Amino acid sequence: MSLLAVDHVGPATSVQDGGRFGAQRYGLTPSGVMDRPALAVANALAGNAPFAAAIEIGPFGARFTVRDGPLRVALAGAAREATAAGRPLPMQTTVLLAAGESLVLGAARDGVFSYLAVEGAVCGEPVFGSLSVNALAGLGSPFPRPLRAGDVLALRDAAPLAQERRLPLAPAPQGPIRIVFGPQHEEFDAAAQELLLASEWRVSALSDRMGYRLDGPAITRAHGHDIVSDGTVTGSVQVPGSGRPIILMPDRGTTGGYPKIATVISADLGRVAQTRPGHAIRFHAVTIEEAQQVARHMATHIASLANLVQTGGAAFDLAALQSANTAGVAVSAVDAATWQSPAGPDDKDQP
Amino acid sequence: MASPLPDPRILPSGDTALTVEFGRTVDTAINARVLAFDRTVAAARLAGVIETVPTYRSLLVHYDPVATGFADLSRKLLALARHPAPSEESTRRWRIPVAYGGAHGIDLDALAERHGITPDEVVRRHTSGDYRVTMLGFTPGYSYLSGLDPSLATPRRNDPRTETPAGTISIGGIQTGIQCIAAPSGWHLIGRTPVRTFHPHREPMFLLEPGDAVTFFAIDAVEFAASDAAAAAGEIVAEQIAP
């Protein structure tokens, strides 16, 4: 058994997997990963199932140290400076860490969440099939809360002689975030629906794993009252009385009483999750059929990741990989410092 | 003979879920249809369906778009709604202890005054009710109940509290709620129950199901403290009444 000790981490860093399904009817939200494709990439490199548990690392830096046996790790998602035992670690490349060696991660340079997968995956006691942390419910394993300094995770030893692996970085998807109108778009007139599509929306600093609040023009409702609560999904675009939309994320309430004008398509949720506070998104409406076509392509792509992994021993051109990683625009730490937890939900139809 | 019930409406909730809407209002008859339909869907074991979330007025169906599509699943669900399989209503009944008033129910006196009755009369009417769990949502184990004495119906507070304690029994509109974990609330807090409708380290993890029948009985603060300790340790404390 190897151990991974948490020397220090910022907020919003926790063990997450594909999510906890089957108890939404009891008010238990799925939680789970914020950026599913990024988790799948990290796990493909580590040789794990696509949505196996990994460490979701929030926008700030972190440092881990290996104890006892060796560990093989890989980092995907939001790009950041990283060193493994003092040597630069490119994104999407595995590295073997021996006992006593440390992994030092800088703050996210773009995006918000990175995924640290370990060969053999994070171990724990699943509840409803998931290790994902849901701090409100006191669920998650090995710790039912975000990680903090001093935590130690028990992991399987790496296969020391295996070759290192990498996945070429794909260009970041561009373009607007795709939505499907509904279920309550009829609560809004055509002008309000058009405003949603025509406006630029800035992610508020009051955003977290429950929801991303958007700043922009107020979307007013044709009917000036809330709806009787119904079920929500990750990606629901709900419009509270303020008219400022909130995109519900994996730690959302399972039901809500604000009308949901639209729903972000599942394939674009990770892109929303990686949008930093203060940065802008736009929406583009697609049909449900198009959205499901995209979802099927995404599922096929994720299933193919394991076959796209390249092995190359020490022959990688690490310098080239590293320069590819740093091509992104640098973002000031002040931006990340605006990341904070919002006040509790203020849903009119909730108790 | 009653006219046939209107078809529910199917509304897309993105590419991985759809909403089967039976109505838009708080109506126990609509809720009964939702819960019956939920049982029908569960029994049908449709390909691709992951889980369902019944609410007062609608059933949210989470599904895998790789295994089925919106049009196909909608067609199957509408067919099920038109020809529901006969299925048993829940016959589970629970008696749930509540410490009313004082520190456990800080809004009891104000609520009584608002309705021109004594706090004891509020407790008498609240413990006389025969309630049904219409849905669970918001936070783990939060149970929304129908069956409140209409004379106790009270609009939501204008200034929601940012935190209310675990176990809170409250009134909001024509509903009463059993809250399991500390959370914000704009409802009126009339008491607390030691019962955990959700306990992450107990079997069963969730106590109440949509459709369950519930009555409340009053306990005092000393009984509350004793039961609360037992409940924290994983005891159920609620009494289940044999059907």
Architecture overview:
The complex is a heterodimer of chains A (351) and B (243). Chain A has 351 residues and is an alpha+beta fold. Chain A has helices spanning 36-46, 190-198, 269-273, 288-308, 318-325, 333-337, and strands at 2-9, 14-16, 54-57, 62-68, 71-77, 80-84, 87-88, 95-97, 102-108, 114-118, 152-155, 165-166, 177-181, 201-203, 211-215, 230-231, 236-238, 246-248, 255-256, 260-264, 280-281, 283-285, 310-311. Chain A has an eight-stranded mixed sheet. Chain A has a six-stranded antiparallel sheet with strand order 7-6-9-4-1-11. In chain A, strands 2-3-10-5-8 form a five-stranded antiparallel sheet. The radius of gyration of chain A is 20 Å and the shape is elongated. Chain B folds into two domains: 9-82, Gyrase A, domain 2 (2-Layer Sandwich), CATH 3.30.1360.40; 93-241, Cyclophilin (Beta Barrel). The two termini of chain B are 31 Å apart. Chain B has five helices and 14 strands. A seven-stranded mixed β-barrel of chain B has the order 5-12-9-10-7-6-13, surrounded by four helices. In chain B, strands 1-2-4-3 form a four-stranded antiparallel sheet, covered by helices on one side. In chain B, strands 8-11 form a two-stranded antiparallel ribbon. With 243 residues, chain B is an alpha+beta fold. Chain B is globular and about 55 Å long. At the A-B interface, strand 16, strand 19, strand 20 and helix 4 of A face strand 2, strand 3, strand 4, strand 8 and strand 11 of B.
